[in-house]
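User: Assemble these into one structure.

Assistant: Restating your components, then the assembled model:
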Amino acid sequence: MAATTADGNKVDEAVGGEKSKMITLKSSDSEQFEMTREAAVMSQTIQHMIEDDCVDSGVPLPNVGSKILAMVIEYRNRHVDASSDSAGEKEDLKSFDESFVKVDQPTLFDIILAANYLDIKGLLDLSCQTVADMIKGKSVEEIRKTFNIKNDYTPDEEEEIPRENQWAFE
Amino acid sequence: MELCSVASIMSLGSLAIQRTHLCSLVFRVLPKLLGFTPSSLKKLCKDVDPPLTETIVGTSPELAQDVLMNIFTTLEIPDLIRAGAVCPSGHSAYTSLQRLGLYKLSQTPCLLYTSASAGDSSAYLYSLSGKRSYKLLKKFCQTDPDPMELCSVASIMSLGCLAIQRTYLCSLVFRALPKLLGSSLKKFCNDVHPALTETIVGTLPELPQDVLMDIFTTLEIPDLIRASAVCPSWHSAYTSLQSLGLYKLSQTPCLLYTSASAGDSSAYLYSLSEKRSYKLTLPDPPIRTRCLIGSSHGWLITVDERSEMHLVNPITCEQIALPSVITIDQVKPIFDEYGALHKYELSWHTGTRAAYNSPSIYDLDKLRDELHYKAFVFPDAFTGTYMVVLIHNPKQQLSFARVGDDKWTWLPPHDAYEDCTYKDGLLYAVTGFGEVHIFYFSSGPAVTVEMIMQMRNVYGCGYMYVVQAPWGDLLLIWRICEDHDVEPEPGASVFWNTTEYEIYKFDLKRSKLKKINCLHDHVLFLGHNQSLCLSAGEYPSLKANHVYFTDDNVLWTLRLKNNHRDMGILNLDDNSKEEVVSHQLFPNFPAPIWVTPDLRKMDVASRVD
C-alpha cells in the first residue's frame, strides 16, 4: 500500500519488515536482550508499547531483572517456534514447560511477577498453576512453611478465620 | 596534628560559625582513627606529643556535645557505635544523636548473610566501607522482635533510608545494636569472615492480589479454604475471589453421605481429588431426618419430616425454604380440631386423566415417601434467581417454583418424567418412554411445552437420564440393570446391579439421534443428583470415558434396606466397574449422593426461620 504520511519511513517498516525486525529489551540491571518482534509481541505489555511506538531505543523493563528476563525470553522463543500442531511437538513443549518451572521458589515468584508485568498469559498460567499445585492438599501450616510466609495474624484474627469453614481444617 | 590543634583551640559556642569547616576537618581525620579500637586510639594519642594527648581524649577541654554530634553524623554505624563507647561524653553525644535521629542518614548498605555453622539465630553483616564482617549476636531483650526479622529488614535497604522515615524498623536496629555493645566491645568486633556464598535470609517477594487470585482460581474448595487462612494478604485475595464469584467453577464433584454414629446433623464429603473425607455440620432440621431428593449446583434438595422442601448448601450452610407442599396441585392440608395441620391428602389425578382412585391420607412425614421423586435446581436465566423443578407422583409429573415464589406451579399434561436438564431458558425433560420434551420458560408465569423427539424404549429395566454435553448435543442415557424384583416383598433383601449404559447423542439443531460408544475425554456423573457431563481435561482426578454413578432407584426412596450398593465407576470401554472408594466408608443406607461444592452465597429474601 502506498500510503504516504509525514513519517514515510514508519509506514514502510510497518508493512514490510515486521516479523524480521529485532527488538531490544533492557532489564532492570541494564542488560540488553535482543529478540524478534514476533516473539516480543507474546507480551501484551510490549505489544502495546510497540503500537504506541515507544520502542526505537529499546524497551526498558525496570521491573524485570536480567536473570528472569533471560528465562522469559527463552520461554517465549520456544513457544513462538512451536507453531505446528503435531502431537510430538506438543509433547516436547509440555516437557519443556514442566522443566521450565522446576526452579527454586524465589525464582518461581519472580517469574510470576515478570509474566504478570509483561502480560504473558501462557507463562503466567503455567507458573501460577505450579504454585497452585504446591498448595494442594497441604494444611495451613504446611503452606506457610513451603512458601516461608510469616503468620502475621493477631491471635484474635487467627481465631476468627477458621470459624467460617471449620471443616476444611480438620 | 591537625586534629589536635583543632581540639585545643575551640570552644563551641564562639566558633559556631566556623564549625562546619572545622568539623569537616575532623570528619576526614577521625574515621581513620576510629578504625581502631578505643584502646589503640588512646595508644595512638599517647604516641603523639604528650601534652596534646590530654587535649584529645578523656581530659579537658572536651569537645562539646554538639561538635561531637556533628563529628559522629558522618560515621558509618559500626564506627559510630565504637565511638559511642570511647568515653562517657562520647557516649552521651551518641545517645543524643540517636534520640534526635541525626546520625548519618546515608549509611552504606551492608551485606547480610547467615551461616549454618553460626547457629540459627545469628547473622553476619559485611560492611562495604569497612571491608569486614560483624557477627550480630542473638542475645536480644525479650521485648525485641525476633532477630531474624531484624536481619531481613536490614538486608532490604540501606539503614539510612530507614532512618529518614524513623520507622519502627529503624528504631529496632538502633535499639538493638547498643545493647550488643553493652557486652564487651571485643566480642562485638569479632572479626570473622565466613564464606559469602551462604544463602541470604529473606522472605519471598510478595505476590500482588490479582496474581494470588489467579493462583487460587484453580484450587478445589478445601485447598482454597486452607489457602485463605495462611496470612492476611492471602485471605484478602480469597474474599475478593468469593465476592466476585471467580473461584474455580469446575469443582470436582464429591460424594456426600451420612453415618448414624456421627450424629444426625453431620454429613461427610468424600473428595475424589484428595481421596479423603471431610466432616460437615449442617443446619437444622437434622440432615439424617430428611430425604435427599436432588443435588445440583452445590445445593441439596431435601424433604423434612413435615414433607416440606428446602435447599441447603452443605459447604456454606445456607438454607432456603421452598414453597409449601400444600401448594402442589395434588396435595391438600387436613387440620385437626385445634386448627393445626396434622395430615395431608393426596389426590391421584394427573394432567391427562382424572384420578383413578379416591384421595389418600398421609401423616405429615409419610407424604414424602409417596409424593417426592426427584428435584433439580437451576439458575434461572430470566430472573437471576434459582428455579426448582420437582418430579413428583402420582405418575412422575412436573411442578416448578422459583426461589421466592409462594407456591408451586404445576406443569401438565405429561408425566412419567425421569430426568431433566436446563440451559438458556429451556428445560429439557425425558420420560421413561423415551420422549424428550422442551419447556419454554419466560420471565412470567407462562410455560409452553413441546415434544421434540421420541426414541424407542427397548430397555425393559433401567432409568433414563438427560444431560447437555459441553459440545452442545443432548445426551440421552439409559442405565441398564440386571433383572430384579420391581415389587419386592416387605423385608425382602433386594439388590440391583447396573451393568451398562447406553448412550445416545441428540443433535438439537439437526434433530438427529445417534448412538455413541465412547465419551472420549468426557465423564458422566449419574445418580440421584442432577446429571453431569464433564470434560476430563478440566478435572485431573477424574477418568475420561467413565461413568461415576450412585444408587438411583425408585425403591430407594421407600427406604428398603439394600445389602448391596449399586454405585461405582464404570469404564465405558469394557463395562468393567470399580469401587468409588476402596474401602467401605459409609453405611448402605441412606444412599450417598454426588454433590458439587459451591462457595457462593445467595442474597435471598426467603430463608428458613
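Residues 1-19 of chain A have pLDDT under 50 and may be disordered.
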